[in-house]
Each structure stands twice: as C-alpha cells, then as structure tokens.
Amino acid sequence: MMKLKKMGYTVICALLVASTMAGCTSAAKSTTADTTTAVGTTAQEQTTTAATTAAATTTASKEPVTLTILANQDWVTKPYMKAIWQLYEDKTGNKLDIQAVPIDSGETIMKTKFATGEISDIFMHFGGSGLAAYQPEKNFVDFSGAAWVADVQDYVLPQTKFNDKVYGLPFWEASISGVIYNTEIFDNLGLKMPTTQAEFMTACETIKNAGITPMYLACKDTWPLLYQYGVDNMFLDSAVLGKLNSNTLKYADIPAFKTMIQWYKDMADKGYFGDKFATNTYDGAPAALGEGKAAMMLSWDSYASSDLDTKYPGISSKFSIMPAFVGAVDGGSYEGPNVCLTFVNKNSKNVEAAKEYVAFMADPANYNQAFKDFGTTPVFKGETTNKTTSLYDSAAAVIAEKTVASTAWPSVIGFTQVEGAKYIQECMLGISSVDECIAAMDNDRIQIAKAQQTPGF
User: Does domain 3-174+338-384 have CATH number 3.40.190.10?
Assistant: First the structure.
C-alpha cells in the first residue's frame, strides 16, 4: 500500500527553520479504497489513436521503486487520485510515498522544499503564472512531445503549458465553479436562483432570517475565499490583461476590483457568512451543507459528488449551482475548468520510473477506471466512463450562457490565491480598509512579478 504522509504543524515549523527536520514526519497507511477490478478492452477501443499510443508506452520498471509525490492535503483525498494510485501500485509493483502538506500552509512549504532542493520525484500543482516559482524549465520534464498531449481536451490543454511547453498531465476533474446551493432550502423559502447581485443579497437576507447561514465560507483556511471567480471577469480583455502584466495598470485602477473586495466586506458585516465565519474550516463544509446549517458555498459542481455524497450519500440531488455573485459582475458568472497537474522532477534519480507513472495515468484504460462514474466533464478526449454531475445538468442552460474562462490563475502574473485572500480576510475582520487591502494585494503581485524578472516591473 502507498504511504500517506501528513505533515503536522509542529513539523512544518521545524521545516521552515531547518529542512533536515523534514524526515521527522510520520507515515500512516492510506485509506484508499480497493480498485483492483480488471480493466477490459472496451474503454481502449473507444479512445483516440493518440491516447492508445500513450497507453502502449506504459511499462513497469524492471526493479520495483518507491516514488515520492508532493501535493496539497486537499488534492490527495480525491477519489480518482486514490483510485489511480492504488491501480498503479497493484499493476506495477511499485510503491508511492504521498507527502501531503497542510491546506493552508502548503504553498509555503512546497516553495521552501524547492528552494532547498528537496524536490520529490513527482509534484502536483495548478498551472499558470503561479507555477513560475517552481522554475518548470529547470525542474520539470517537458512533455510537449508525449503522445498523450493529443488526447487532452482543447479547453484544458492551455493550462498544461508554461511558456508554450507542456509540463503537466491534467489528471483532474474538469469542474464548473460558482455557488453551489441547497435547492430544498431555496424552495422552502420561496426563493429562485438569483439573476442579479441585488437578488442574491435579498436571498441571503431571507435565508439568514430563517436561522440558516446563507453562505458557508471556510475563512480560516483562507484559500476557499476563491476571489479569482471575480478576477476572471476583469481580464477577459487581453488589452487590459496586458496592461496589468506590464505594470501600466494596477488592481487599484479597476473599479470592479474595489466592488469585489467591498462585496466580501459587506457579506461579512451583514452576517451572511455566519457569526463565526473566521473560524470556519474547509473540512467543516460538508457537515454545514449536508446538515442544512448553511445554504450555499463558493465551490464547483463536482464538489457535491467528491465531498458531499461521500459523507451524505445521495445528497447531491438536493443541490444545484448558480453563478458566483462576488460583486464583480451584476449577473454573476461561472468559472471554467481549472485543473491540477502532475509534474515529473527531471533531476530525480527515478525520472524514468516517474515518466512511466505519468504514462500509466495517461493510459485510457487506467484513467477510465479511475474516473468511472465520477461526476465531471472529461479532461481527456478518450474519457468515457465519467458522468456529468447533477448540478451541471440542473443548470446547463445558464452555465452555457454565463461561463467565462479561468483567467486569474493562468494569466495574471503575480496572482496568488492564498496570499491575496489573506488581505481580504483582514479586511472582512476590520483589520484593514478596502483600499488598504487592495494596495497590499497590488504590492504582493508587483513583488512577485519583479522576482520573476517580468519586463516592466
């Protein structure tokens, strides 16, 4: 069985002081479910020629090896990740050592490890400009010529690239993001899916008056503030994005950015995130939503099947997904797929085995087994065993009308989901003003761009 290594907070502190303490982490057996059902040939026959070619290159290493995988703790809990990892171990005889870092401080820990040269064989991370800190050209295998690249869906492929080269395999769910909501609560209160910001705020007030928290926000973990849902809309115009990325425009110069920060502040002040939102954690979300204590949450459609149904079987049937109303666009908007990628450390002593691991994941027979019956739109062209989520199906027409591309993560130089959200968090708690919050976010973004030696900064 693979080892799942969870790095505790005591160890984290030690790691930041002395990297040699990293070996003190404890190991525990994974709770991955058994997924050893034999793979048939039907799925392979349904896939593209390119995908089948990728499958043919998959071979087990001559001698069993143990590959290390560094990833955020939240990512390693995904059922399809557990399924592919178990399948890989069962079919190859190799082992996986999963090094999971805490959700809130994981980014800092991973950057520290890269800075000190403690790079795992395999690395998981989202793509885009935020990947620059990990120096893809220096550290990761270039998969641009891999056969599986042709099997990646066109709406996902851009996210696999850095400086026009493919570095990461998008083995992930392709979700539509917005606000998931309990339709039963809405129906009982006579509410319909909001179509404007004003209607959304009215719904929040009605839900609050009924003794239910309108929106669950895992504020303590910071990243679930998901302010990129608003940022996406601000930079759909390439000319505006170009000005921001060349330092001729700032967040502070964009009225919609201030409106978005004010939205978070107003939601907090009005009690729409609940009285104790500052201590809410991401782990507490399933219970809050599943038990009807909260009506909504900023999230994605597949969350209902991957996180809610696993704890409250069948409850996803009570949920739908509305556009994200975060102040930036009056009618709200959905965010298109944003996928986590799997990278190979090209300087690892196990680089060949790690490349074979990626080829294994890209094998249509294997990924179709891992994603079987999972609610997601397909990442691969040969992906046939998945199913669209009930949330997606219930809002398909609105999703088609109001979905915008994920822009903040892949395109805004210096964008940081966690660090930026910390300033919003401080604003919500009254520690700083809206203008001070934006100034701090601008400063961080500019410093990152300078560190990356971006022209104009």
Answer: yes
